[in-house]
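for the writeup, i need someone to sanity check this before i put it in the appendix. the sequnce is what the collaborator sent (i think, or maybe the updated version? ugh). structure was predicted straight from it, no edits. if anything looks off just tell me and ill rerun, i have time this weekend
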Amino acid sequence: MLAMSVYNLVDTIFISYAVGIDGVAAVTLAFPLMIVMMAVAGALGMGGASVISRRLGAGKEKEADHVFSNMMMLVVLIGVIGVIGSFTLLNPVLALFGAGETVMAMAYSYIFPITMGTVFFTFAFTTNAVIRAEGNARFAMITMIIPSVLNIILDPIFIIWLNMGVQGAAIATVISQASVTFMVLKYFISGNSSLHIRPALMLPAWRIIKEVSVVGMPAFARQVAGSVMMIVINAMLIRYGGEFYVGVFGVVQRIAMITLMPMMGILQGMQPIVGYNFGARQFGRMSEAIKLSLKVVTIFSFLVFGAAMVIPDWLMRIFTQDQAVIDAGVDALRIIFAVAFVIGIQVISGGLYQALGKSRPALILSMARQVLFLIPLVLILAPVIGVWGVWIAFPAADILAVLLSLYFLRRDRKLFFPEERHPEEKENLQEKHA
């Protein structure tokens, strides 16, 4: 998810300057389909990583290999489905978004190469989560940094010098992801990993697939909810403001991505530590990791809030010099980020349950902000006060979502902080809260 967001961010910056606000609107319209790709890869990667980290923590290396081999089988299958979908589903799906002919054509030229490269994205995102799960955070970071830097280098070449516009941005992204695929393959084949791809274990094991799917479902639901949210918001903006406001929202959304990346990085670093120590019954270490993560994301959330309130025009100018877009974006940014200081709690809470394999509360918290709160609020407020209704729906949804997160965290406090339990209760932690 982080890598895809980086690629989309870089693409948007170059497209904004080389193509204009219509290009940004096109990428924004196509982004929900990219989110679906992230949802599938995220579910497989985060679900599998959670299962693998707990297997490794319990000393069950052979079972961890079995899980990993089944994950690789699913990566290939998803890649094939992505190619088929590129030729059969893209045009009908994009037609439902309701944009004008020019913007829609650019959206298609952007998303087609990306869906054709589904196997690269899925493999990269899945294995990155697995590499973190086995404790090699350094190499996991390298596999994110190198393709991101490569994408920054290739974007101006394809978008500007080769004059390929939004399609050039997509091609640069696919090439960048293909590069990391070969890096990671070498890592696993060379024996540097504690995990092994065993062809004999790649045959579908439904028990493993079910366990990975159940644990990964919250990540999938969260991303798909984000896709549905974007489709609804884009439709409301087109209806009550026009394609111009889709472009404005596209810029604001990229700023939101920048702010979320460090918090998602903290979450992804926390999850394997929590999962491993939970499996190893090292509850003190697990508790320390949770407390530290909550403190860091809370501090960062306040910094994000301050930046959005004090320098919104500077943030907008990262992506565009169009004064009309900047003026509209400053208003949108200040409203959307009005309660940004609570975002960190939302990020950590859902991912925390997922790390422990508690799929039900993880799913609820993953869906709450976007599906239970934001989408209904947008549908209620936009017809009444137009574009401003879309912006106001965001802080309202954030307030409701953080209240729900705090309720769950308080209810299950002794699960996350076992030092508050009696010694005999600690032995039953893994059986409780299923």
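The mean pLDDT is 85. The two ends are 27 Å apart (CA to CA).
thx in advance!!
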